[in-house]
Each structure stands twice: as structure tokens, then as C-alpha cells.
Design a protein that fits this description.
By secondary structure, the protein is of the alpha/beta class. Helix content is 32%, strand content 29%. It contains ten helices and 18 strands. Helix 4 crosses helix 5.
Length: 341
């Protein structure tokens, strides 16, 4: 059965190989095999690859030396179980490989199960937690739950630190960025979205930012009295240019994503801070549980009008969509949910 592997030294080099097949009676005591039904493919996956060594994203699904299996958020069904923690037929939402099957060692959890395999012991709890799903599950949840959750966390962070006059967001067409812009519309803060020239019109038509500029228009970016820069590109050279433009009025720079991470990386300014959504989820679990449902209810109509979710089937379609994401050619108005045979 197929699975996607990528070169850890060059993410553009990828291959569709024969992965795990049906194990049947081959499961060990305590193991369960899951059929990966479908998973979301977004720039989030590119971030997982870039931070694979630094934050352990290669660990959940090991691969041969030099190769990696990028994790994704997906739905899976337990097709065989020798674990008392999960029954056959159970459906869950959680971290899955871009593959057809995966074997885990489930441990009990009131909302589903926890993956207890030793090689995943030092991962953040959110990546080892598998939540029970009733019915087929919504594609929108696969795409939006991790991304919008980060938007809500960033909104909480900005409010806790004291809102600046302006928040500048790079990669303004990315889903996490414009979802955060939506949340900030009810705050006393001005949002400025920065994007590539070819996407400037699309981002402007979202109607979520107070101002939208192309990366070729940075001279028009007026330094606020107080400002926060949130970078979703992973482009250290761009962040440095913005620091020079915004000057000493910039209170903080948060590095969140890697939508532009191609070729040799340039280090961002030393004052920029890497933002860890998993760490913030653990720290703000109660606030997130309280704020997320109402925030999503308000954002859901925006999500529906701004993003079309398309299903893809098969390895060739997966590779094509993955390479488009990696190269920055993906349509910002489309997200993909993938299934493999």
C-alpha cells in the first residue's frame, strides 16, 4: 500500500513507495492497526518537514535513513486491535502518516486513546492524542482545526501581552494568518497583511485586513507607534527587511510558519521568537477550550466563503499537490483532503 516519503535534506525530492500493508494476525499484544481514511494537506505539513529535526516531527512515523514521513491530521479507522484501549471499528481524529495503514500501541484516554509507542514518548501530548469521531467526520475539521486553533492561540497571546497599535502579518493569504485577522477585527488594533503581488487582489477581496500590501510595496508600510510582526513565511531575509522598516517601534516578532521556505535558509533577526503552538496548547488548555467553540462559530461562515475544500485520491494527485505547496504555487482559495488506496 502506498505512502509518501521525502528526502530530509531536500523536501522537493519525494517518492511514493510501498508502505505498511494489512497485518491481520501479525499484530503484537497491545497493538492496533488503523486504516488512514483521509488527511488534510496544507502548508502546515511543510512546517512539520522544516521543523522535523528541531521539534521531532520525523519521530511519529519512522522512515529509512535519509528519508522522512511527514505527518498530517486525518481520520482513521481501527481495523484490527489487540489493545484493550480501543475496539475494532473505532474512528479517530489525530496525527497520521500520508499512507494507507499505520500500527500503534493505544493506551486509554477518556476521549479516545493515546499512542504509547516508546519512540513517541517525548512528543507533545497533542500529537499522541486520538479523539473519537462519530460518523464520517467533516473535511473542514481536518483542514481548519490545527490552523484555526493556532489563530485562536495567537489572539490570546496578543491580548495577554497588551494589544499594539498594529499587527503586521506576512503570508496574508495563509489560512492561519487571515483567520487571525478575522479574530482581530473585534479588537482595537490595525491589521496589515503582506503577500506576494500575484495574491494581493485575492487577499484584499477577503475583506479581513485593514490594509494589504505586496512584498514589492514595503516602502509603503508605515511604522506604527507600537507594533507586532507575525511571520508565517519562514523567510529570514524578509523578516530582517521588515525589522529595518518598522524600526524600534516593533515590540515583538513571532515566527509561526514556513510558507516561503525554499532553498537555503537565512537566519531571522536574533530578537525574533519561535512560536510553539503545541506548547501554547498545553499552557492555555482551559482558555482554548473556552474560546475556541465560540470563535469557530463566528469564523465558520468566513471559512466557507474563503476556502474550497477538494478531495484528492491516489498517490500521483498527492505528489502533485504536495509539490505545488512546497513551491508556493498552490491556490490559496483551495485546500486538499487526500485519500490513498
Amino acid at each position: 500500500m502506498p505512502e509518501l516519503r521525502v528526502r530530509r535534506g531536500d523536501f522537493a525530492v519525494c517518492d511514493l513507495v510501498a508502505g505498511e500493508g494489512l497485518r491481520g494476525n501479525d499484530l503484537a499484544e497491545g497493538e492496533a492497526q488503523l486504516r488512514v481514511e483521509r488527511f488534510a494537506l496544507t502548508t502546515n505539513n511543510v512546517t512539520y518537514a522544516v521543523l522535523g529535526d528541531e521539534l521531532g516531527y520525523w519521530k511519529p512515523f519512522p522512515a529509512p535513513a535519509g528519508w522522512g514521513r511527514i505527518p498530517a491530521w486525518g481520520y482513521a479507522t481501527v481495523i484490527a486491535s489487540r489493545s484493550p484501549a480501543v475496539k475494532e471499528g473505532a474512528r479517530v481524529f489525530g496525527f497520521v502518516p500520508m499512507a494507507s495503514y499505520v500500527t500503534m500501541r493505544p493506551a486509554p484516554h477518556p476521549l479516545g486513546f493515546v499512542e504509547a509507542a516508546p519512540h513517541r514518548a517525548d512528543l507533545r501530548r497533542i500529537y499522541n492524542r486520538y479523539l473519537a469521531v462519530e460518523g464520517e467526520g467533516e473535511d473542514a475539521s481536518l483542514v481548519w482545526r490545527p490552523l484555526f486553533g493556532t489563530s485562536v492561540l495567537l489572539d490570546l497571546d496578543l491580548r495577554e501581552a497588551g494589544l499594539p497599535e498594529a499587527v503586521v502579518l506576512t503570508s496574508a493569504s495563509s489560512k492561519t494568518a487571515y483567520a487571525l485577522a478575522h479574530l482581530l477585527r473585534d479588537r482595537p488594533v490595525r491589521t496589515v497583511g503582506l503577500t506576494s503581488p500575484v495574491r494581493r487582489e485575492w487577499v484584499s477581496e477577503l475583506g479581513l485586513y485593514d490594509a494589504v500590501l505586496g512584498y514589492d510595496e514595503l516602502e509603503r508600510l508605515e511604522p506604527p507607534r507600537t507594533g507586532v510582526l507575525i511571520d508565517f513565511t519562514g523567510d529570514g531575509a524578509l523578516v530582517e527587511r521588515l525589522h529595518q522598516r518598522l524600526g524600534g517601534d516593533l515590540q515583538r516578532t513571532l515566527l509561526v510558519g514556513y510558507t516561503h521556505r525554499r532553498g537555503e535558509a537565512v537566519a531571522p533577526p536574533a530578537s525574533a521568537v519561535r512560536y510553539s503552538a503545541p506548547a501554547e496548547i498545553e499552557r492555555r488548555a482551559r482558555s482554548l477550550a473556552t474560546d475556541y467553540p465560540a470563535a469557530w462559530a463566528a469564523f465558520a461562515p468566513v471559512a466557507e466563503r474563503t476556502l474550497r475544500i477538494e478531495r484528492l485520491s491516489g498517490g500521483d494527485a498527492l505528489i502533485e499537490a504536495y509539490r505545488a505547496l512546497l513551491a508556493g504555487r498552490a491556490d490559496p482559495g483551495v485546500a486538499h483532503v487526500v485519500s490513498l488506496p
